[in-house]
Amino acid sequence: MNTHITLEQVAAYQENGFVLHRQFLSGAELAELKAAVLEAIAGMGRNKVADGGRNLEEGEQYYDKVFTQRLNLWRISPAVRRYMLNPELGRMLCALADVPKIRVWHDQTLIKEPFGNPTAWHLDNPYWSFYSRQAISMWIALEPATTENGCMWFIPGSQKFANYQNVGIGQNLADLFKIYPRMAEIDPVCVPMQPGDCSFHNGLCAHGAGANMTRRRRIAMTCAYMPDGSTFNGQQNILPDGYFQSLKPGDVLANDDWNPIV
Ligand SMILES: O=C(O)CCC(=O)C(=O)O
Ligand SMILES: [Fe+2]
Predict the structure, then answer these.
(1) Which of 22, 71, 134, 232 makes the best surface tag, with the fewest CB within 10 Å?
(2) Is the C-beta atom of 124 inside 6 A of ligand 1?
(3) Ligand 1, closest atom to CA 119?
């Protein structure tokens, strides 16, 4: 795992809200993580959240055809856990996000199946149970991600003026721009990746992905991280029912079982 980032990468992340990190995984690591992800989801059926998270089932709607989405694989796969919770990765995330300590929010594999729908422009952080301008997500390509099969696109600098208003990942690619017309005036940047490359993005940086026009799966493994000290905002997201009901807005989210420090 190449957890060395340069000052230029940190500066680019801070300025643009995203950065590409090539050859994050070696060939052997890529093979191990991909096998672990596929094995973990094989036992989940249509259940989207592993191991006691909120009960969410995959259906047949538009969103279900954007990607096959399975969350919190780190809880059921020791290999996935070793990668997503790696302390050296934690240091790299803290350097990029400019925070002293960071916790796992949730991981998710996002598999854009053959002929899968595009991922509409959206922000991530407004979905989550905390608000932070420094939340960070990692997106690792486990198969090539190309303009043909739905690689990621970002709107550079959008994290600087986005707030916690959002739109769902629906059928209209551009609904987000009704809230933030300024975003539609910035050229989006497309980030194709080779397997083993990854990108990092701020939870308030606008991003999306095109359709998968090919017959092959676009497989990605992603993980979202929450700065330590973040507080509950009243939203369940994928928190287990019992834990969710025990929280009051303003409580610090410091459950080391559910959101361990990386
Ligand atoms: O993989 C995709 O199509 C979208 C990924 C995404 O929205 C994310 O990682 O936050
Ligand atoms: Fe996203």
Answers:
(1) 22
(2) yes
(3) 3
Q: pLDDT of 119-139, one tens digit each?
A: 999 999 999 999 999 999 999
| 67 part of a folded domain | yes
Probe residue for ligand 1, chosen from 110, 117, 217 as the CB with the greatest number of ligand atoms within 8 Å: 110
- Residue 209's CATH number: 2.60.120.620
The domain tally of the chain equals 1
Phi–psi pair at 33, nearest 5 degrees: -65, -40
Maximum separation of any 2 CA atoms in the chain, in Å: 46
For residue 235, is it within any domain?
no
Give a yes or no: residue 129 inside a domain.
Answer: yes
Where in the sequence is the domain holding 12, given as residue range(s)? 7-229
pLDDT band for 113, please (50, 70, 90 cuts): very high
Does the beta carbon of 153 sit less than 6 angstroms from any atom of ligand 1? no
Burial of 155-169, coded b for 16+ CB within 10 Å and e otherwise, reads: bbbbbeebebebbeb
Q: Is 119 close to ligand 1, i.e. is its CB under 6 Å away?
A: yes
